[in-house]
Design a protein that fits this description.
This protein is an alpha/beta fold. 42% of the residues lie in helices and 15% in strands. It has helices at 6-28, 43-59, 74-85, 105-111, 123-130, 139-150, 170-179, 194-198, 244-247, 261-278, 280-284; strands spanning 2-3, 33-39, 62-68, 92-95, 159-163, 183-187, 203-206, 224-227, 231-232, 238-239, 253-254. It has a six-stranded parallel beta sheet. The protein is globular. It starts with a strand and ends with a helix. The model has no long low-confidence stretch (mean pLDDT 96).
Length: 286
């Protein structure tokens, strides 16, 4: 079994980004900029945002975290996004999810300029991704595809099962794989007999937030398992959606949790921010 080490690969990508930033500063005399909006005081979100800010700083990207109380109105949030849309020094805007229940997430995401949508959640980018056109790709599935590329894992013609159909991971993951000519089955909480699907798969990507859901007897010998899930047990231990210990003797490739897909998410967000910075001139054309 070959371990797909996301921590090592993300470090490599961050170094690539750092070089790209230096080149952009030299050639265009601009510093790529990323704005993150954090609403409320969710501890997990705050930790993730802090990691993004540190990664930006290390890469030479200008970043600003706009913290707002969870009592903020939707109109106030939309006004802030509008200011960021019109700020030429900010190339990327992302709103940390989830948002408080009184705020409509779709309305907020649609308010972001699609050319600054480094999370890839705006319907404009979603549509272009599905249509296999150039777009901003959500960072987590983008990271998974980068892992395949790094390890020369061919997905064309392979049977792939994606477990989980979220807008953030499952749906874009399926679209990316379809665009690469994989045969894709998407399973969700209503899927009957999940095991019957996964046993046929050459590759399984799981992202549901259920500890140890995918077990050894659910995959065939030599299968590739990409575990996007991250769950904290009562003991405090972080584990994935796949039973790593059971699967490690059955799989040809397997991602660990932590240290697998997780680190790739921030690395690919930085890649998207660089992409957005290169579009700055296009945004400024009226």
């Amino acid at each position: 079994m070959i371990l797909l080490d996301g921590k090592a690969l993300s470090a490599k990508i961050k170094e690539e980004v750092k070089v790209e930033v230096e080149q952009i500063v030299k050639d265009k005399n601009i510093t790529p900029g990323l704005a993150v909006i954090l609403v409320g005081n969710d501890a997990a979100s705050a930790t993730y945002v802090a990691s993004k800010a540190k990664a930006c700083k290390d890469a030479g990207i200008y970043s600003v975290v706009h913290e707002m109380p969870d009592s903020i109105t939707q109109d106030e949030l939309l006004q802030t996004i509008d200011l960021m849309n019109n700020n030429p020094k900010l190339d990327g805007i992302l709103v940390q999810l989830p948002l408080p229940k009184h705020i409509d997430t779709t309305t907020v995401l649609e308010a972001i300029n699609p050319l600054k949508d480094v999370d890839g959640f705006h319907p404009y980018n979603v549509g272009r991704l599905v249509s296999n056109l150039d777009s901003f790709i959500p960072a987590t599935p983008f990271g998974v595809m980068r892992m395949f590329e790094e390890h020369d894992i061919e997905v064309s013609g392979k049977n792939v099962v994606v477990i989980g159909s979220s807008d953030i991971v499952g749906k874009p993951m399926a679209s990316l794989l379809i665009n690469k000519k994989a045969t894709v089955t998407v399973c969700n909480s209503r899927t009957k007999d999940l095991k019957s699907h996964t046993l046929k798969a050459d590759i399984v990507v799981i992202a549901v937030g259920v500890p140890y859901l995918l077990k050894e007897d659910m995959v065939k010998d030599g299968a590739i398992v990409i575990d996007v899930g991250i769950n904290r047990l009562d003991t405090g231990k972080l584990v994935g959606d796949a039973d790593f210990e059971g699967l490690k003797n059955r799989c040809s490739y397997l991602t660990p949790v932590p240290g697998g897909v997780g680190p790739m998410t921030i690395a690919m967000l930085l890649k998207n921010t660089i992409k957005a910075a290169k579009l700055r001139e296009k945004r400024e054309i009226k």
